């Protein structure tokens, strides 16, 4: 006879937080949202932590290199989508790792014998406006000059004009010497009003570049998530089919953490994938998705560094109506969090959990953290922003962005759902849709974070750990849901005629 769960499958909207005493020092300004993303032993620190509990979903319409840079700059992490060739995915990871604050290894280099045409082609390929000119065109060759957009005029200079004739020569450059630290380099940039400071050794060989814009970006984004080399931290999604080909390229490109992207994570294929990664590489790996204690423990015992929770709750996911598989996100998270706490008591090992799906309103994020999630993964939320990889379109009188699921035919991501069958989607588990355009990531994320910190202050919590330990949560009735919004009034127009 089948096992029947006595409790209904519940969603976030069925719960509310009850305020605790707010002490005078428990203000939004004093709330710290730092959270672990990789497992660690009691008394130790995780190898990787997030400065804000946000990750962007492993989706074509959400997480490319631009989103990776933008979210890491704010303190979160993106998992670059895996439904592309391993080479293309590794290239995206590499772009995030190379876009770093501090000492940057030059990736756009030419020789004096190249031409303006070569400069323009390289700029179009890389997006870099500063090009180092070395004797051999390598990033560590003898520095002979620098080319920026101020050194040529496309309207007047012929395309075959040699670089040697318009570059700023080494003799006219202000450079830093090998061994200089970042504060000293930034002081030179400000003192000499530079945009770029080359760092060279005693033989004039180029070591790195330091940019003014990176200094400004760091000051504007103090929570930026960076590794020990001042490169942005970035993740990448993999599947359980081509991991032996994909993982080596991602690790070589510098991926800090991997995650197995699958509709259902409670499988032997995930255990095999985790084992391969752990045996061959020094890189962290998360797994999922699961919705109960059994699935969580299976992945933890397989070696997962974090576990993703949620099946069928995503805004573009139709797994539940197609297959009848899944569970309400709140119910899933509550059970997995209880299993995680029991595992921690028994072993002394804390395994972070990620709540993936089911988040509609900003307060759902705070609820998920209170219910035990260490961080959340969202697709629709991030797809709305300028930094997502999809097109901005005008539909009617509104601007929208395209948003499609990895289970849709458009994504062609059969590996995410395959269980040993054909190489293709027999039926869809995701839809192709639009989301309202919302502007820049940072502006919207700052507003969401303000709400989270304010709610945590109401709950008397200055950290996510305190919220999880002390939160009081209540179920709400259908009538209470109506009472929670504006009601029994005549609403005024939400926009003014002058806008």
Automatic annotation (TrEMBL):
Gene3D superfamilies: Aldolase class I. The active site is at 317 (thioimidate intermediate), 416 (proton acceptor). Its cofactor is K(+). The keyword Transcription regulation does not apply. One of its GO terms (molecular function) is metal ion binding. K(+) binds at residues 312, 314, 317. NAD(+) binds at residues 261-263, 310-312. InterPro entries: Aldolase_TIM (IPR013785), CBS_dom (IPR000644), CBS_dom_sf (IPR046342), IMP_DH (IPR005990), IMP_DH/GMP_Rdtase_CS (IPR015875), IMP_DH_GMPRt (IPR001093). This is Inosine-5-monophosphate dehydrogenase. The lineage of its organism: Bacteria, Bacillati, Bacillota, Bacilli, Bacillales.
